[in-house]
Amino acid sequence: MPNKLKFISLFLGTLLLFISTQAISALPGESIILDPNTGDYTLTYWDSDGPNARIRRAVYVPPTKIDPLLKSTFKFDDDSEIVYSYRITNGQKSRQSLITMLFDPISNIVSSTPLPTRFQDVDLATITQIDRAAVSAITTPEYWIGRSTTSRAGGLRIGWSYRDLRNDTDGLLPNETQTGFGFSSKDIPGIGIAQFQGNAPVPMYSGEGPIGELATEFAPIEQNDVVTRNAAVPTIRVPAPFDAAVLLDRIQTHMHTWIGMKLLDTTFSAQLDHYFQTATDAYRNQGQAGNGQVARILALLERQYEELERSDEEQVKKKSAVPAKIDKLAALVLYFDLKYVMQRASGR
Amino acid sequence: MSAPSGTSCILDKYIITLQNPLADIEPSGTQAVNAITSGTAYAQVVNPKTKLPKPGVQVRFSVDVVANTGGHDARHSAMRPKGKLLDCRDNTTEVETTICITQLDGRATVTFKAPIVSGTHTIIATCVSPACTSQASGHINVKVGGLKTIPTSPFYRQIGQTDFHLENNYLIPDAATILWRMAAAYHFEAQFKRNGASPPLLPLNDASLTWGGKFDIHGQWTTQGGHSEHRRGTVIDIRANSAAGAISTQNFKKFISLAKFFGARAAVHLSGKATQHFHVRLLGRGE
What we know:
- The structure holds two protein chains of two kinds.
- Chain A has helices at residues 3-23, 124-137, 212-223, 244-260, 266-286, 290-302, 328-345; strands at 31-34, 41-46, 55-60, 68-76, 82-90, 98-106, 144-150, 156-162, 177-185, 188-198, 227-236, 305-306, 317-318.
- By secondary structure, chain A is α+β, with helices and mostly antiparallel strands.
């Protein structure tokens, strides 16, 4: 490294260290210092143990030193349910093994027992059997544990954790890939968030850990303990009895959330909205005639990507060198959902 | 008899009343940003015959705390902290008594600020006027609402000591539901089993007191001594030391991962000590 670059790097490191020390300081002697090289935090805090109060130190290692790659697949099975499956690769830049993936929220999955999607519907007398049925309904690869519970956001929280977690390297190592995660759902896909965690040391405090102002300062660091990726997950409930206009409306409402996620260009969204509106009106007034308008939306998507009908992220290709107006996974999901509406509207 | 304005040379006798009960407020000192930790109370002075309000009367407000309330028993040492009143002269300074003046509607209003410890407080309003010497009082409960005893379960057992407190096992219902489902998963999941047998029931220690607020483990009322987050029924300790039935070291990472799935957050506190335990924020946040 040239000397000048070395100096700049050292200067920036020192500056960051200085800022960390200065910005976060609650009581005299307390601090949270980020090591820019390791990404670890050293906490120095007053332990609250009465007359024995004294300064303690702990190191917090965020479980976020991973670079996960997620592939979502969704297709119909013979029972007209949608099979969702996922493949995870722990990227080669990862500095931790990957040990957790979870989705929260997803709308629902197929289980032998209906699953509560609201906290107020959970009955402790029956919930254990329901949770066990849900776990059986989840596809889980060997060496992993599948789990299901009620999301506090409404819907379900589904996830997998690596089973044997005794050593620091347990889990999916960098560059390794794991397939075989999945479930079935009657709900059609939308874009959700997958949360991942790496294998980090157990957070241990010789006292109670930071309290007061320092705890308040530390909270956002502690809360930010996942790496996220977009995923295709069950999101949109299909109305029963089927109503194409209502379903189309739900798809459009969900699609609008993609603008905030930077998955959809606003002008392209407005263009799509025009056809959504005419399609919804046509379904309401002329039944199956709405399919013609939906086909126009499909054509707009096909101008962005090739091979959308294959429902496979790896086979879909962007059409031109110009940046796409919609994210690839989002286009794939929308294409699938709209095809579903057309098929059901046609009575298939 | 004179008019309510009290201009005759024969003094009218007025009566004072106070709202009772006053609305519950939360103890201070939690990390819950939306918690309401202060409230107002008003005393009203009226002519009992005409029912007309009497303005300009001095009313002295004072506050006391009722013993053995809020989940704390009589064996605590030292003086129990009580809430404060805001001085009516500046509405800022915290005092134990203050004198306020009734307005045109006959009301004198005072602000009460909750202490960190839950319990029932009594606000006493006394007329300081020759025409009105009566007294009125009202109760205000400093408490975290909605806490319930942790339901009994086949997946955990409660082991907490209650030396200075009536009960130590109160949570809000959502937190209790998470605890139940997490404990069931701990019981059934293969990763926690040894030779095919489920692990011992999760040994639960302190959660929150009956009304929440500062859980002063050593019965000294102070902020010291730990349990800084056991105040709003969302946090519980689970034994993780060498005692029989505690979560074993080899399961620490698995347990943290399990907690994370259920939206909770677990960390080891008092590491290396005889009382080592998992401090579990059941809703993922400290309160």
